[in-house]
Amino acid sequence: MRLFICEKPSQAVNLNAIIGTTLRKEGFNQSSDSKIAITWCVGHLLEQASPEEYGEQYKSWNVNLLPIIPTSWKMVVKKETSKQFTVIKGLVKKASEIVIATDIDREGETIAWELLKLFGWQGKTSRLWSSSNNDDALRKAVSQIQDASKTYPMYLAGLGRSQADWLVGMNLTRLYTTLAKQNGFMGKVLSVGRVQTPTLNLIVNRDREIKNFIPKPFWTIGLTLSKENTMQPFMANWQPNEHLCDEEGRCVNEQAARQALVQMKNAGHASIVSVETKRAKSHQPLCLSLSELQTQCSRLYGMELQHTLDVAQALYEKHKVTTYPRTDCGYLQTAMISEIPQILAAIKEADPAIIDTVNGIDATLRSRVWNDEKITAHHGIVPTTQKFNINSLSSIERQVYELIRRYYLAQFLPVNEVNKTVVEFECAGETLISRGQQLVVLGWKKLFTKMGSESELEGELDTNQSLPALSQGEKCPIVKGDIIAKQTSAPKPYTDDTLLNAMININRFVDDPKLKKLLKENAGLGTEATRASMIKTLEQRGYIERQKKAIMSTAVGQSLIDALPDIVKNPGMTALWEQALKDIELGQQTLESFMTRQGQFIKIVVENTSQQKIHIAQVEGLKTCPECGKPMVKRKNDYGSFWGCSAYPNCKHMINIKRKKQSNKK
């Protein structure tokens, strides 16, 4: 029997008609001749065994028994999915070939292989690889099933991630919780994680930068000039001498600025020193990766990262109208060029309102997005050939789908072109600069405008002026001039999109040049699939809280970061771990060597910390949730402040709501 193992029941539903498994059974489907069967895992059916499984002594949390480093790793069956586990176990015993049909990523490989390893499977193993759940893509993938050895290293990387997370989480959580309770901490558990802790460190450091920020004054001068004998005004900005400026080029000498303004006004005009015009081309953006999709949805629609992932997963899995979402790549394979006509046809059929836009593109254009050499494990997120009615999507699903669609259609519109002009002036010994631009070709950017003018692209709300025709030596009268007193601004609190960007571009927070270069080229903090859940976990554990869109650290989160050594919270270190997992995935490093280094790391941390006194801030008011025992955290809603369980939404207990007074006005 040929047995297909999917990750979720919905994947099996999509495959049933294609592979002929139309007879429904308990926990699986099979063909009428019983030669083919398909089953599903409901995610991970197995989990890493708890420390108690490695010895009775570990039932108590004792610093003297740390570190716990298994020599032979154990997996246990999850209680909630044990029934399906038994079904798969029975099917594997009857199978002559296993076809892994889980998600095409590290976790998908791990879900299948951890079962096969537990069952001692030694038979033929194949891999079905499809980034889309629509019928055409699945039919093609079934016809091109490959040997599973090609993707097996992804399982080794997933196993390494799981074991490394266990070593850090189990050992350091026990270590710091125990030491903190010895010093009066009343909370239940202090969770420490390989990725979550450096992420928390980013947030804590940003909050402290804001708190300790001291604003500094500076001054700017803006002059309104006009072309001689015309009424067309334009702006020019004063360029102060370096000796008047701080390291950012801002004038910090008010008296000098005011004196310069008086002298320029007295001169009455500014002479043009140079005029330089260059054609600037803006190429089509790549298609969306998951992180870029999350960034844009946070910025445009205020969506949290996990919400965006959930919606993208529904578009892929439930509706089958977009491709696999958990990708870190925005490029497309050249083989996908053949699908362009069908995808465009599906887009038009789904949404008649987009027909004119699609008819106005050039499907023969080839942007930089088509590049096989840039493809990682998965290509960018794009619409599929699936036929559907866009009204079948919820409002938020439609927003996300339209965003994905927009980035795909942008590939078939021309490059955006503008003429950018820089004019340098001299006035009373001072230098002025005026900038302007003129649109030549709107191109792909017409898809990213509201009402035909305002840009939706970050940083693209264009305020550049249109300059009159100017030439060197020309004198431009001064219409008016103003000095503006300003202050330097504190950094802004993290939001979902800016925190995600910081996690991806973690190299910016590392000082060592070699490490910075390595991180810029190869790694980020966490993965496409885990970053959203990691931020949510920090919130549920009471280490961070949301104040509208802002993400802020709590007193507990701050004191935990203060207690941890740099090697645990340093983002550069954990990013290097992630890079090591990628090396395992690529066959450039062994799992054994990676885990040996992880064990050595844990031993060092435990030895250096076990005798320290750990002080953690207590949560004001309630210490723990009376329903589930998790820490209570202070939250806000439209009615005011209240205490809510940090395990929300799993536990929705709340207390002490301070409601705002209702207005009597009608």
Key traits:
single chain, 666 residues, alpha+beta, 22 strands
Q: Output the number of helix runs.
A: 19
**How would you classify the quaternary structure?**
single chain
* Termini separation: 72 Å
Major beta-sheet overview: 7 strands, mixed
What's the overall geometry? Answer: globular
Strand content: 15-25%
Give me the count of strands: 22
Residues in helices, as a percent range: 25-40%
Query: Mean pLDDT, as a whole number?
Result: 90
Q: Any idea what the radius of gyration is?
A: 30 Å
Segments where pLDDT lies below 50 for 5+ residues?
658-666
Give the strand line-up of the largest sheet.
Answer: 2-3-4-1-7-8-9
Q: Can you walk through the features of this model?
A:
With 666 residues, this protein is α+β, with helices and mostly antiparallel strands. The protein is 36% helix and 19% strand. It has 19 helices and 22 strands. A hairpin with a 2-residue loop joins strand 13 (416-427) and strand 14. Helix 1 crosses helix 4 (135-143), helix 5 runs antiparallel to helix 18 (571-585) and helix 14 (513-522) packs across helix 18. The longest helix has 30 residues, at 152-181. It is globular.
